Amino acid sequence: MAKVLIVEDDQAMAVALRDGFEYEGYSVAVARDGASGLEMASQKEVDLIVLDVMLPRVSGLDVCKQLRAEGNDIPIILLTARGQEIDKVLGLKLGADDYVTKPFSFMELAARVEAVLRRATRKVEKIEIYQLGDLMLDFKKCEASRDGEEIELSPREYKLLKYFIEHQGEVITRDQLLDAVWGYDSFPLTRTVDTHIAKLRQKIEDDPGNPHHIVTVHRAGYKFVG
After folding, report:
1. Of 149, 124, 146, the residue nearest 135 (C-alpha)
2. Fold exhibited by the domain 3-121
């Protein structure tokens, strides 16, 4: 049974989240301020933290920063208010794994918790060479070929493909791709992802207009099918 630590100062929100996660089968601990959350995260066995950004005593961002500075890699999902774009970006740069913007549905948060826990517990195999039908990808040498004929891919397209392959079968959001491939330092737009995906499909898909490998998941993102 995974244990979730909820760090939330709003009592009604904290109770609702606790009840929701307990109903889903999680063990739950609750802290009402950042200092208590930091102490509980450091002393108790916790599998994931749901962490509000706006907290008394110690802010959620400072909690995240201190945990990562201590070498604590426990997965963290931030709860941010609408309009706190800079907090989302800063939180991800400080080491948070994901964020949810208030107001949100509990099922959305639960799905993100499940996905983050799955990524945290799975050991991703280091991929150097990968074959996709008649397409051969050598990530170590940054070389690609189809039936022996070289295909020119940009460094970013290699990074995109490798990330997709490492998360095969998962629904990947545009924000996840921006974080993993572009990095939040560059503040790219989500439509940048769509543009690059379209170009990549032209190079690797047999029918780019009806892709079979990089599949669009409506209103969610993309999924890679090997």
Report:
1. 146
2. Rossmann fold (3.40.50)
Q: Report the CATH number of the 129-224 domain.
A: 1.10.10.10
Q: Is the dihedral of CA 118, 120, 121, 126 positive or negative?
A: positive
Residue with tokens 């802290």: 31
Helix (H, G, I), strand (E, B) or coil at 108: helix
Instruction: Write down the domain spans for the chain.
Output: 3-121, 129-224
Per-residue pLDDT reduced to its tens digit, 11-58: 999 999 999 999 999 999 999 999 999 999 987 789 999 999 999 999
Per-residue pLDDT of 75-84, as tens digits, reads: 999 998 877 6
What's the pTM value of the predicted model, to 2 decimals?
0.56
pLDDT for 51 equals 96
Nearest-angstrom CA–CA distance, 107 and 218? 17
